[in-house]
Amino acid sequence: MANLRELRDRIKSVKSTKKITKAQELIATSRITKAQGRVEASKPYADEIRKVTETLLAASTLDHPMLRERENGKRAAILVVSSDRGMAGGYNYNVFKKTRELRALLEEKGYEIVTYVTGNKGVGYYKFRGVEVAGAWTGFSQDPGYKDTHDVRRHLIDGFIAGSNGTAKYREGLNVAEGEEIQGFDQVHVVYTKFESMLTQTATAHQLLPIEPVIEDEELDFKEGILADPGEIHSDVEFEPDPDTLLAELLPKYVSRSLYALMLESAASESASRRNAMKSATDNATALVNDLSRVANQARQAQITQEITEIVGGAGALAESGESD
């Protein structure tokens, strides 16, 4: 059994760690509320831009590259949304696992994979494993601002419009020389963490481009999805300029807004995952302090008992020696 001093030192150390994990838990809890508020605040704009886009699709005959699957596609871009900091439980591990699954599926279909990353943890993960990263953006995983995420959003859109046979212009964060153009791609996928509840966050692979129709019960929903059938929707709105011109301008904004919404959801999921991890660590620290305190009390009681026994034994020996004299 460890001596009493060692037990007291360990109890002190665990209590100090518990203070840190408890503080992290409280900070993460406050950030969840803020992140959820930002998601809710962004919904009115998202709903309106979706409605306008659907109306334009109903009145337009434009064959936009964002709306159709490319034949003989060669390259697929994957954006991995990770965190800048650790102490978030399995948040990053689940994202990396889902990315491996998506990567294997696309490679099986013959696509060349181009990897983009947000968050320091993702950058470190792929650097350690020797995986080439075409672009990385860090510093905003918990609080993504529209300006902070501009370069990554615009590059993914520009790269897709350019296609694997074209090039997109240089933007901050790309791993090429400044001013150098980079080859485009034919698909864009995002691996992010979907916020289900305070206790559940799910790593999800989402195809951002080309835009997919809404599917419900294994049937295409042509009434509410962005790819609604123009033949079934009749628009009474007059557009100026013409619907094709408006749609060509609005679709990139629609996709950019959709990607930003995924980043906001990932930020809420990161804070929730960190809160759960820190709460678990705090609970474990509390249980460990209780166990160590129990052992320390037993050691202290044993020490006291031994001292009393030694005192009584010594007193008895003195008494016997006095009687013998």
From TrEMBL:
Its main location: membrane. Belongs to the ATPase gamma chain family. This is ATP synthase gamma chain. Produces ATP from ADP in the presence of a proton gradient across the membrane. The gamma chain is believed to be important in regulating ATPase activity and the flow of protons through the CF(0) complex. The keyword Membrane applies. F-type ATPases have 2 components, CF(1) - the catalytic core - and CF(0) - the membrane proton channel. CF(1) has five subunits: alpha(3), beta(3), gamma(1), delta(1), epsilon(1). CF(0) has three main subunits: a, b and c. It is a peripheral membrane protein. HAMAP family: ATP_synth_gamma_bact. Keywords: ATP synthesis, Cell membrane, CF(1), Hydrogen ion transport, Ion transport, Membrane, Transport. One of its GO terms (biological process) is proton motive force-driven plasma membrane ATP synthesis. It is found in: Cell membrane; Membrane. Signal peptide: none annotated. Coiled coil: none annotated. One of its GO terms (cellular component) is plasma membrane. Pfam families: ATP-synt.
